[in-house]
Amino acid sequence: GAVVSQHPSWVICKSGTSVKIECRSLDFQATTMFWYRQFPKQSLMLMATSNEGSKATYEQGVEKDKFLINHASLTLSTLTVTSAHPEDSSFYICSAPADRDRGYTFGSGTRLTVV
Amino acid sequence: AQSVTQLDSQVPVFEEAPVELRCNYSSSVSVYLFWYVQYPNQGLQLLLKYLSGSTLVKGINGFEAEFNKSQTSFHLRKPSVHISDTAEYFCAVSPRRWASKIIFGSGTRLSIRP
């Protein structure tokens, strides 16, 4: 099946610093990448949609200046949490539609803890 | 816009018993429907999807779901569960246009008792 590699799987950072999360499609071209956030024991909330070569589209209530998304190539999309604070601690997951047979594929997630 | 309602936040079941996880959706347009499973601290794995065709969809690990357009439901079923099925299950919907964003339900925690 289609594979999206997400790194890092976990990260601990100090409050005020920035953290970058990468998602790479390994065996297909990801023209679109979706970024989700998941709080403990809750569902996935869509944060933004990135398209290769254009600006990301953010969902209502998501701060675009805090969650910077870059989708510079067909195989790489990144999410940078800027000036992180403890309330940004969460599980972040990326997803990309591969094709109709393989469907949407998800990264393994990044557990961000801001201390 | 689309939305998904998973009626049960938790479902406890004895091993080898049948299980049904309920999902209802709302949409003003035709949709694709999905069921995903998530194990602790992991990403999501696709169980099955309905894009078109037969309303009874068979997926991995012995799961199946039936699309009912009149009741706007997509319930997930398995005739006999195993301990290894303990996980969080998410129903999801997207507009019937490939590569559209997927909206998830709140999830159902399936716990299997020996």
Quick structural overview:
The complex is a heterodimer of chains A (115) and B (114). Chain A has strands at residues 4-7, 10-13, 19-25, 32-38, 44-51, 57-58, 67-73, 76-81, 90-99, 103-106, 110-114. By secondary structure, chain A is mostly beta strands.
What does this structure look like?
The complex is a heterodimer of chains A (115) and B (114). With 115 residues, chain A is mainly β. Chain A is built from no helices and eleven strands. In chain A, strands 2, 4, 5, 6, 9, 10 and 11 form a seven-stranded mixed beta sheet that branches. In chain A, strands 1-3-8-7 form a four-stranded antiparallel beta sheet, with no helix packed on it. Chain A is 0% helix and 56% strand. In chain B, the strands form three sheets. In chain B, strands 2, 5, 6, 10, 11 and 12 form a six-stranded mixed beta sheet that branches. In chain B, a hairpin with a 5-residue loop joins strand 7 and strand 8 (64-68). Chain B is built from no helices and twelve strands. The A-B interface holds A 6, 31-32, 34, 36, 41-46, 49, 91, 93, 95, 97, 100, 103-109, 111 and B 34, 36, 41-46, 49, 51, 90, 98-99, 101-107, 109.
Describe this protein with a few key phrases.
heterodimer, A: 115 residues, mainly beta, four-stranded antiparallel beta sheet, 0% helix, B: 114 residues, six-stranded mixed beta sheet
Distance between the termini of chain B: 41 Å
Please bin the fraction of helical residues of chain A.
under 10%
Number of alpha- plus pi-helical segments of chain A: 0
What pattern of helices and strands is seen along the backbone of chain A?
A: EEEEEEEEEEE
State the major sheet of chain A: 7 strands, mixed
Number of strands of chain A: 11
How much of the sequence lies in strands of chain B comes to over 45%
Spans of at least 5 consecutive residues with low confidence of chain A = none
Mean pLDDT of chain B: 93
Taking all residues together, what is the mean pLDDT of chain A? Answer: 94
Radius of gyration of chain A, rounded?
13 Å
Counting helices, strands and paired strands, the structural category of chain B is mainly beta
